[in-house]
Amino acid sequence: MCQKMKPRALACLLAGIALVTPSLRAEKLTIAAAANLTYALAALDEAYQKANPGDELTTVIGSSGNLFAQITNGAPIDVFLSADTDYPQKLADAGNADAATLTPFATGRLALWTTRQDLDVTNIAAALANPKVKHIAIANPRTAPYGLAAKQTLAALNLEKVVSDKLVVGENITQTAQFVETGNADLGFIALSLLLAPNHKSKGAYSEVPPELYDPIDQGAVITKLGATNAAAKRYITFLKSRTAQDVLTRFGYGVPAFE
Amino acid sequence: MPDTTATFLGLSAPLWQALWLTVKLSTLTALILGCVGLPLAHWLNTTRWRGAVVAETLVTLPLVLPPTVIGFYLLVALSPNHPPGSWWLHLTGGTLVFSFTGLVIASVLYSLPFAVQPFQAALRGVPRELLDAARASGASPLRTFLRVHIPLARHGLLAGLTLGFAHTLGEFGVVLMIGGGLPGQTKVASIALYDEVQALNYDQAHAYAALLLVVSFFLLLTVTLLQRRRAH
Known about the structure:
CATH class of the largest domain in chain A: Alpha Beta
Low-confidence stretches of chain B: none
Largest sheet of chain B: 2 strands, antiparallel
Number of strands of chain B: 2
Distance between the termini of chain B: 55 Å
Strand order of the largest sheet of chain B: 1-2
Number of strands of chain A: 10
Mean pLDDT of chain B: 88
Structural class of chain B: mainly alpha
Shape of chain A: elongated
Strand order of the largest sheet of chain A: 2-1-3-10-4
CATH architecture of the largest domain in chain A: 3-Layer(aba) Sandwich
CATH topology of chain B: MetI-like fold
Order of helices and strands of chain B: EEHHHHHHHHHHH
Number of domains of chain B: 1
Oligomer: heterodimer
Distance between the termini of chain A: 66 Å
Radius of gyration of chain B: 20 Å
Mean pLDDT of chain A: 88
Number of helices of chain B: 11
Number of helices of chain A: 11
CATH topology of the largest domain in chain A: D-Maltodextrin-Binding Protein, domain 2
């Protein structure tokens, strides 16, 4: 009995090692990204996978505030791509991320979008003040930086009072887009990156909000405490600064910082 | 969004407003469920139509469907781009989505099985002989239903209404999809609580959650007590 088991056991052991070895080299990487990156991230991940075929990428999308709370409470995220630099900084201050890895990788742009055929959005202030407009969608200003930018825009245009009872709040920037897409909101402040995605391009009309009307949406990436030992996490941050990644981000309407 | 510093029992005014809105929504939903759900339950119990099985399944569907599915379909179905949203727009100038009315419709659909199923059980629990006796004494089916059947089943029916009310109190996913967070109109307690958590106001969130827990507990206690009592 024992003699029969030995070769079998050895074979099993070798097979086991063979199965395990590839995954020792490859890394599992979980990225949490703010909702405005929904489409850009698909393209970014594709480019990253091409360069690093061994790594296994998992992506989680949500509003920056929501993701921040989840990571703070131990969510298994390695890299956090926020819609601002405040949330990553707060994570680092609380000891849940490595401040040294905080990298601003893109500047977000805000746009006003409508799917109604009878609304002209070329003049943003006029469109917002139009009495035909019943609902204006914005992301939650308390948790979504694009929502805050929208609020700042309304203040800069002195339209806060005019639109105060027309505002509907989306949980995150993609839900805000849903409200406009389904025709329930007449106008919406959406991330430009969402409107430049292939399936959105032909729907409705949009106008880019002049950047001087809101504080710059500097988006930062950071490696979390849980991701500190993950080599793929470092690779991803380096990748975000690379030419390839910057080309993708520019294609989706983001501004990109100059890296060496 | 203005930050209010005035508090009552440690909770800010907007939170109390959200609670009041939730109570209004739940009450209205429970009343509609009573008016619509009772006849529906009776019909499901007594009909011989083969298609009733499908109807009963449809009524039970919200029990298993993720609320976000219901919410999503409502978001698309109630859009002002096509009926019935467009009819509503013509009639009232407003949309169903982002409105209290829209929430009531959604809540009735969402809590339907939670009221109809207890209704069915309660109505079935009344002994056949008592109903037959009423019919034999000359009462019409409607009169029997209203004056004999319902009163005899009243504890179970009340339990169903309370359950419908309680279930709407906790409604979240559906409201998240079609509410839009309008204070005083669609920002219900569950959404307000979620917002406080998201904004990292954990103190407020704790206090609010505790309040909602206490309210829910006493409601369910009522349901349990009612279901234990029998009318006969």
